[in-house]
Write a structure and sequence with these properties.
By secondary structure, this protein is an alpha/beta fold. Helices cover 58% and strands 10% of the residues. A six-stranded mixed sheet has the order 6-7-8-4-9-12, sandwiched between helices. The protein has a four-stranded mixed sheet with strand order 1-5-2-3, covered by helices on one side.
């Protein structure tokens, strides 16, 4: 009797401590969610995890207008995604990646996205409560939720009888210990060892699926919290989530067998429950019925995934807006023409960006010396075009433009494994832009850095001028950076000319990174050789050789 009383006291103390720990962790998590709003994410992800985040995007049917891999890599969009990924759950971080890779081309859809983002900006308490509910659902360290719940539908149902038998034998052995200690003790030790070994063997085969099922358990728990939130402006999204999770009501029966707590679990009650799972295989037994429910309600699960993912992504977008020193809601038009006007435009990830303005209805050639800011400006414009059509946000004072299909040809490299030279990779990259301009239902925006740099000067200028001329005659707004000043003259009737320049001092070169109208008038490559300590006779000879070519249009032969 005394043992029973002591056991009950221990259980009560455990429950009180567990409840207190839960309240403390919730307070800390709530404060963390408040504090991180308006900051960039510092969460580190392994390559394996980052590949899993991409699964939702790559598994969906290809849609025209999505950013291809070349453009995504050229613009360093991985870095942008990582920085603004302040999502709270697995659905959110996978959906956000897809959202950034699929620009919108519909005013109504973009307006709805803007409405939801604005709600989270203006309603802090509702945002924090929803973020807390999603954070309790949690994320996965390595796997993709979307991938594994779809894979779970393909699992063959394994028999649960071995687990049931092992659990029953262990239960029967417990009373035997009291009546026949030597026999019961030996049997208990053997059964515990057998159950532990077989548990980890079987669990290893289905571990990712168990994580997904546990995630869905937490989701059904948090659905009750979502029901109680006052999100009047987002009622349709609430109803969608609640209707979808209602189909998984069977998960609630015995759900604690799979996972008793949230992703934040780790208190004493959860530790005790983990030992019970290991010894009696209760989570493996429950798993079989849950897989059946996933198969039966795939459509509802997809709806819940996309709805929660959308809301979580919009909260991340609201946080990103709060981080930006200046931003605007873009004004976009759907027409066959193409225009772009941006005032005080800047790169959202640069610590001290230089802002530039541009207004154009035709393509642009940008010249300037090395390191003057040409490539950075191209990325700045392109990233803002992407943000305008995905997050309804532009990092500038004002932004008016057409809807665009977005492409780039910038940070290319030799395709060593495919046996292709840099030039072959480059012309294929340019060809895809030409093909898109012929088939796209809306104008194409493209950034090209040093067109055809992989070939000789004569053919580069001849070929690139013709390619750029063809683009100018199509519904294409091209921003092209080049060192070939000849192109500014050849294409003067079709392209606007802008340039970046520098100030050369006695022992220094300073760049102001300001976009200026007209073609570049200065060169600094030879001057930089001198500033970096190359022999004076070398730099003077190079300067004289360049001047002679400008006078005679012939290169002088060098003597032995």
């Amino acid at each position: 009797m005394e043992f029973l009383v002591l056991f009950l006291v221990f259980v009560i103390i455990l429950m009180i401590k567990s409840a207190a720990e839960g309240r403390r962790r919730e307070r800390e998590l709530t404060q963390k969610l408040r504090d991180r709003f308006g900051t960039l994410s510092e969460e580190e992800r392994t390559e394996e995890k980052y590949r899993s985040i991409q699964y939702y995007f790559r598994s969906r049917q290809e849609e025209p207008g999505a950013l291809d891999d070349i453009t995504w890599n050229d613009l360093d969009m991985d870095r942008l995604y990582q920085a603004l990924n302040q999502t709270n759950c697995a659905m959110g971080e996978e959906y956000l990646y897809d959202l950034l890779r699929r620009p919108l081309y519909d005013l109504a859809a973009l307006a709805e996205r803007q409405r939801v983002i604005a709600f989270f900006e203006e309603h802090e308490e509702e945002r924090v409560k929803l973020a807390l509910a999603l954070a309790k659902i949690g994320k996965f360290p390595q796997i993709s939720l979307y991938e594994y719940y779809h894979r779970a539908m393909e699992l063959t149902s394994a028999s649960v009888w071995p687990d049931l038998v092992q659990a029953a034998l262990l239960l029967l052995a417990l009373p035997v210990v009291f009546f026949a200690p030597p026999i019961g003790g030996t049997a208990l030790v053997l059964l515990v060892a057998a159950n532990v070994v077989t548990y980890f063997q079987r669990k290893k085969r289905i571990e990712p699926y168990l994580q997904v099922v546990a995630f869905l358990v937490r989701l059904t728990h948090q659905a009750e919290t979502l029901r109680s939130l006052e999100l009047s402006d987002l009622a349709e999204y609430q109803e969608r989530i609640l209707a979808g999770t209602a189909a998984f009501s069977s998960f609630r029966r015995g759900a604690w067998l799979i996972n008793s707590g949230s992703s934040m679990s780790g208190d004493l009650a959860d530790i005790v429950m983990d030992y019970i799972r290991i010894l009696f295989h209760v989570d493996l037994i429950k798993f079989a019925s849950m897989v059946t429910a996933i198969r039966r309600h795939r459509r509802e699960l997809d709806i819940v995934y996309e709805t929660i993912g959308f809301l979580d992504s919009c909260m991340a977008a609201a946080s990103f807006r709060a981080y930006l020193p200046e931003w605007c809601i873009p004004e976009l038009t759907k027409s066959r023409g193409h225009r772009l006007s941006a005032r005080q435009l800047y790169h959202p990830l640069l610590e001290e960006p230089v802002k530039n303005s541009i207004k154009t209805e035709r393509s642009v050639l940008i010249t300037g010396s090395n390191a003057s800011g040409k490539s950075t400006f191209l990325k700045t414009v392109a990233i803002n075009v992407v943000l305008a059509q995905t997050l309804a946000t532009a990092a500038c004072a004002s932004y008016q433009a057409s809807f665009f299909r977005i492409y780039s040809s910038m940070a290319l490299s030799d395709n060593l494994f495919g046996g292709e030279s840099y030039y072959m990779v480059e012309i294929k990259s340019l060809k895809r832009i030409l093909d898109a301009s012929a088939t796209s239902s809306c104008p194409v925006f493209c950034c090209i850095d040093e067109v055809l740099r992989g070939t000789n000067t004569l053919e580069r200028i001849a070929a690139s001028s013709q390619i750029l001329s063809v683009l100018a005659k199509k519904p294409v707004l091209a921003f092209v950076a080049t060192h070939d000043l000849e192109l500014t003259q050849i294409l003067e009737a079709q392209y606007d000319n802008y340039h970046f320049s520098e100030e050369v001092r006695e022992n220094d070169v300073r760049f102001d990174y300001r976009l200026k109208p007209g073609r570049a008038q200065s060169r600094n490559a030879i001057r930089l050789l001198s500033l970096l300590g190359f022999p004076e006779e070398l730099t003077e000879a190079a300067r004289w050789q360049a001047e002679q070519f400008l006078l005679t249009q012939e290169w002088k032969r060098l003597s032995e």
